[in-house]
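Checklist before submission:
- one chain only
- standard amino acids only
- sequence pasted in full

Submission:
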Amino acid sequence: MPRTMRVEYPGAIYHVMDRGDRQEDIFVDRLLAYPWSSLVWYLAAPEHRPGWIRVDRLLGEHGIQQDTSIGRQEFERHMEARRAEETDEAALKPFRRGWCLGSEEFRQKMLGLMEGKLGENHSGELHRETAEQKASRIISEEMSRLGWKETDLVSRLKNHPDKLVIATRVRKETTLSIRWIAARLQMGTYKSLKSMLQERMNADEKPAKPNAPCTQLQLPRVQPTV
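Returned file contents:
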């Protein structure tokens, strides 16, 4: 079964993972025996690492506060212990089916970088998340322009004209459904918003009537008097 194509953009850094056929183990020796693993750089002294490697957060997650030789040795022991543990299938699910592994802040940053760069071969879930991230940016821009807060979406009328302006922009600039837009902007049911959007978009697309030609004012001719 073919896999989803990798998300690519200039300057990207990829964390490549591999696994055995039929879920067989592939790490059967000490982890450092695999030269393609980035672990060797995490265990190296700072002056020998590539510039993009940042170890403080990873060491901190393991309770190691100092990037020292002793701390790095402790980190390697932790990783070897993890390799020997029984596999937790639920914990592996994000690796096997998810497209992002990291904090929500990191996820949103990646979605922003991918905006407008996805192809047909990328998953529908990724397209949807990218569209939602773009819609959130549009809504934030419009609310900032109006001086609104999130509570205004709840307190103002469902058919408020400014809400309709926001909804129209989201509909035109993203692939999100009307149902999603109605729920996000607190605009009532899908059917009611659909009719409002159709009316608004038809009005925007309707060509303006040309101005009627101006008729010159005809003044009566006055006979000169002698």
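Reviewer check: DSSP finds ten helices and no strands in the chain.
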